[in-house]
Amino acid sequence: MSVDAKTVRKIAHLARLEVAEERLAPLADELNGILHWIEQLNEVDVEGVAPMASVEDVSTPVRQDIVNDGNIRDDVLANAPRTEEGFFVMPKAVE
Amino acid sequence: MSALNDLTLAGALKGLAAKDFSSRELTQAHLDAMGAAGQLNAYLVTTAERALTMADASDARRANAKTGPLDGIPLGIKDLFCTKGVRTTAGSKILGDFTPPYESTVSANLWRDGAVMLGKLNMDEFAMGSSNENSAFGPVVNPWRANGETQALVPGGSSGGSAAAVAANLCLGATATDTGGSIRQPASFTGTVGVKPTYGRCSRYGIVAFASSLDQAGPITRTVEDAAIMLRSMSGYDPKDSTSINADVPDFAAACTRSLKGLRIGIPKEYRVEGMPAEIEKIWADGIDWLRAEGCEIVDVSLPHTQYALPAYYIIAPAEASSNLARYDGMRYGVRVDGADLTETYEKSRGAGFGEEVRRRIMIGAYVLSAGFYDAYYIRAQKVRARIAEDFNAVFTQCDALLTPTAPSAAFGINAKFNDPIKMYLNDIFTVTANLAGLPGISVPASLDSSGLPLGLQVIGKAMDEETCFAVGGALERAAGFNAKPGKWW
Q: Of A49, B103, B145, B365, which alpha carbon lies 20 to 30 A from A92's?
């Protein structure tokens, strides 16, 4: 499988990355180089093998549903590019 | 008498205990050395005032005989660890002047045990890289140079700042992280010791995430014993990381001098790769001889899926990274570049904030996770990962630990591989398998090559058996008698 400039534009949009028009074709070449190298995985017999998401064979631990941290509004906002009256300020998301 | 920053971590602990010098003197010696080493570009931030305050507090504790296991020891912290009140960048522009309001568990453990923070260490952006050339703040320069040469060499990556600072005596030890080899490969390139413990041994809380199922913290130091002392403090169960392992932390330092009699050491034939320099073959053979002389039984073993580890990694790690790095949206922290609407603001912020390699990996990740490709790429890679883990389970019925080279080459020149991603990725060919299987590994400097550059040997152990890694690593260190230091040119 290989990608063209149009696919690269689509992936970049999915990943919310601005890519300059003239970078699309060179990026397609770079990604194809990597994707072709990765395709050697097709040689491996994986019949009946369960996909491995974690090396740990344990279930996710759960804790009591109680607040153990909080009242740190100013800490949470301290690094925001823009805030107003205790809120994050962002561009309009709903018309 | 040599300078205080030339001591080992264990030696400094002895000197502090004997009151030969104070933590303030020890810390000041490091700050002075750091001030004179700007050309290495190892530190992004020097926290001199904080360091001296912490050193004074340590000296006061010592006067009251209330010291911790690392009391008064000055350390460097990789800039992937969140440090409360000190800018943390992950080597990226996208975090801007992000100043964490909290502390990573690993660094908090070090401060709990009395250590002193010297500053934050340079690294490849988001820990993606094998040469440190992907840092948004310029590459770290390896303190080592080839005999008679002045060409700048890379220190390896992604923990290149950590490795260079330890090699140049700019700290007694440094924290580092390893997702595919980022502790062990730079250790090999700089003549230092690097340990990646078992996945889950160190908490990931407060470490900027790259690939969460692979990321693990560990130390880089100048000796095996120093790494053992430091790892003991870094390790331990943390309820804030759901993958943290709830198990006792052994006295790793006690394992460093353990007898190896009867220990079975596996030599995996698949690690004898095409084009490997003869000098690396040679130190590997020397390592085998040294361990045989210690009473080890040498066993030839096979890890048949080794060649597929790197391609599987370059699906799994970018996939996890593309999810993890979705949080950098320019809204809650970091850099925001305004666009016409919300989507364009996201795209411009992320396009401007991320460097080239990070963008490449996010796009690979987004592609392999996208509709229509998920099964063919991502699920298949996870199945291959299971095969690689099975390989290790099988060989660990025949042997107790594995001995391999750490990296397929010595340190190379800045720009030598920068424009060839796959060539760069191949640096991790011997280290990435331990990440995929979650196993502990240590790199120990074994010799200098004919051009005078350090080469490391790696020991991979069973899960939760760092002690055998330290025992074998300690024996390799004693047999190799490696005590070379880079000539000071900076």
A: B365
